[in-house]
Amino acid sequence: MARVAQFVVSGLLAATVANGQSFDGTSRSEDAFSYVQPENTTILGPYGHSPAVLPSPNATGTGEWKEAYAKAQEFVAKLTIDEKADMVTGQPGPCVGNIVAIPRLGFPGLCLQDGPLAIRVADYASVFAAGVTVASTWDRDLLYERGYAMGQEFKAKGAHVALSPVAGPLGRSAYAGRNWEGFAADPYLTGVAMEKTIRGHQDAGVQATPKHFIGNEQETQRNPTYNPNGTLTDVIQEALSSNIDDRTMHELYLWPFANAVRAQAASFMCAYQRLNGSYACENSKALNGLLKEELGFQGYVMSDWGGTHSGVSSIEGGLDMNMPGGLGAYGKTPGVGSFFGKNVTYAVNNGTVDESRVDDMIIRIMTPYYWLGQDEDYPEVDPSSADLNTFSPRSTWIREFNLTGERSRDVRGDHAELIRKLAAEATVLLKNEKQALPLKAPKNIAIFGNDAGENTMGAVNEATFEFGNLAAGGGSGTGRFTYLVSPLEAIKTRAKEDDALVQYFLNNTQIATNNVTDLWVPATPDACLVFLKTWAEEGADREHLTVDYNGNEVVESVAKSCNNTIVITHSSGINVLPWANHPNVTAILAAHYPGQEAGNSIVDVLYGDVNPAGHLPYTIAKNATDYNAPPTTELSTDGTHDWQSWFDEKLEIDYRYFDAKNISVQYEFGFGLSYTTFSISDINAEQVAESIPSIPEDQPIQPGGNPALWETIYNVTVAVTNSGDVKGATVPQLYVTFPDSTPEGTPPKQLRGFEKVSLAPGESRTVGFELMRRDLSYWDIVSQKWLVPEGEFVLSVGFSSRDLKEVAKITPVSV
Ligand code: BGC
């Protein structure tokens, strides 16, 4: 399975690598991979190669950022060269990332904190629902509200920069360890989620950091392997290279990041791994070309932690801030060394780097700071952060941090209410037969599974734990719980209202290996609630797609004797559910990672106080082997550059792949039931733009790119009716099928609109979708433009990607 590939590193160094990748998956018992690289194929392009795009474009201070840009210019003019080096280099300190203060200019420094579901290094802060969870709401307002509430907490703790949200990974592979930090395996839904979250964070006054840019689709070999006995830069094997072709880059991976730029995100975090042969944090095509030029990004690019692999090349390649930085000597160990720091001073003094480039880096850093008013009355860093920060404990500090703010400030406000609501609205009802749900005051409830009870492993999820409710994943994207309401606790409280008997069995081994009729008393329970969990964390890809801790056996054991088995999963995302069609499994709820109110939010859904309206942000296949694009996990060669991941499936990830290959699935992308029923009728598509030429007008670039791409050119409406007898919400979804004239490889249908609508029984409402030019365009690799293809488009609206009810046909481009 060896493959020889010719590629270029940093656009400078040509190399030939032997790339033997073994995907036989023998170590993965039930999830064998089928992906095999073609033998001895020579790849000379079109990808696996990253051209140089130089110089790094200067910020111009367009639009709303004009005044702040002028202030940033004034600020930079007052700095010495050493201060400039400080401004672009992190230091060990109280926060996960720190830029030191410059007291003589009244600049308090910057505090950067993780992460995408909570301010992690903090006490008395909330743990919100994870990205995958909130994406399951398909609710623009809730996405914004969550972003805003999180932003409030970051700010109140004195963090200037939130290392959130995540659009990379996007979800190319079902196995990727960090998919749950991001939103959906679809660029459109992720794009909306990015935009809403960023606007929320920044409206609350904190800088957002969309990450990880770009191609960060797996954990395995995300960083290089260093020689443990060698010098600090002695690399045995470089990090994985995500090799992505230009069209796939634009239509899939760059898409949601374009929304992020358009939402005026302050900063971007570049990814650990290589992209088309060069490290993402020095990839000038990605940072200078795509991000700063094409998308008109005006903010700054910070490196992922330890993701900087050069000084001058990174600076020229578009990197503006090195994190976590350190002393300024070459180094790989976080917090110890930095390719920036003192090296920036040297490089400017000896003429290797033009000082104007360093000035631009600082202008980019300071413009959003002024724009968000962070120079006025910003809360001081909470000193408790310094005590909790295991990343750079006080013993590692080199510079002084003056922590005079009030310690352990409680910043949670009334966010618990929102978190409860969010997670309930995000719960996806996958199956509901024999009217199992909502529960009707059951008198005898049995609860099963090690996910149901109290968390037994403390406040922070650092590793998987057998006993206790799982409400967040692990790594830098986790949160520190001040409390967690377990499902067991919440059900016990609720069941008291019905004077019900609540019995519980929390040991999966016991349940799986015993006859459950020997466990419960006195008779078969009215409802058997089975709580299952699936762990995922940063730094590791998932070993399998099944639920953890013998979850399948637990379900089988309970369902064997209980004809009303209701399964609830707390999971990082995709699980194959081999028992989904078991006749005694009457209901299935996917609750993902709900955050601190886990128990309350699931009780709200189980008892019908909240009518579930969540929809899947990915596909649940019938078998694990049905998924394509597995992570690159094993190499049979040990060459320095051998870790290559060829994104050969191109645009076909998740539902696009299952649709293109006509594979039947268990639950499709966009699927989700309700306690009521809905119908859709009366589709109407109206052209809004007077005429629609195939080529967009070339307007001056604004954040988000050519503004013409964001102009609404069609309005589509449908009538949605609640045809059942309880109040509920649903999410009509619009999918576009491109005309035959579109280049080969275009997925059969692509999500291009959705809108959540809440309706009383019998109520009907018109729901509108605005189609922008980008929505009806493909990326033309020849002209390097988004083009609307000639011919007839099919617009389908329904309740999931495979439950399409209404169809309209349009021909936007007149020939
Ligand atoms: C992660 C980032 C995170 C950073 C700081 C890195 O390992 O990839 O997402 O923000 O650490 O904790």
From TrEMBL:
Pathway: Glycan metabolism; cellulose degradation
One GO BP annotation of this record: cellulose catabolic process
Predominant location category: secreted
Domain Fibronectin type III-like per the UniProt entry, residue ranges: 730-801
Entry-linked SUPFAM superfamilies: (Trans)glycosidases (SSF51445), Beta-D-glucan exohydrolase, C-terminal domain (SSF52279)
Gene3D superfamilies: Glycoside hydrolase family 3 C-terminal domain, Glycoside hydrolase, family 3, N-terminal domain, Immunoglobulins
Catalytic activity: Hydrolysis of terminal, non-reducing beta-D-glucosyl residues with release of beta-D-glucose
Keyword Signal in record: yes
EC number: 3.2.1.21
Region forming the signal peptide: 1-20
Class of the enzyme per the UniProt entry, highest EC level: hydrolase
Lipid metabolism as UniProt keyword: no
Any one annotated GO CC term: extracellular region
Keywords: Carbohydrate metabolism, Cellulose degradation, Glycoprotein, Glycosidase, Hydrolase, Polysaccharide degradation, Secreted, Signal
GO molecular-function terms, A-Z: beta-glucosidase activity
Compartments, record wording: Secreted
Biological role stated in the UniProt entry: Beta-glucosidases are one of a number of cellulolytic enzymes involved in the degradation of cellulosic biomass. Catalyzes the last step releasing glucose from the inhibitory cellobiose.
Family label: Belongs to the glycosyl hydrolase 3 family.
The protein's name: Probable beta-glucosidase G
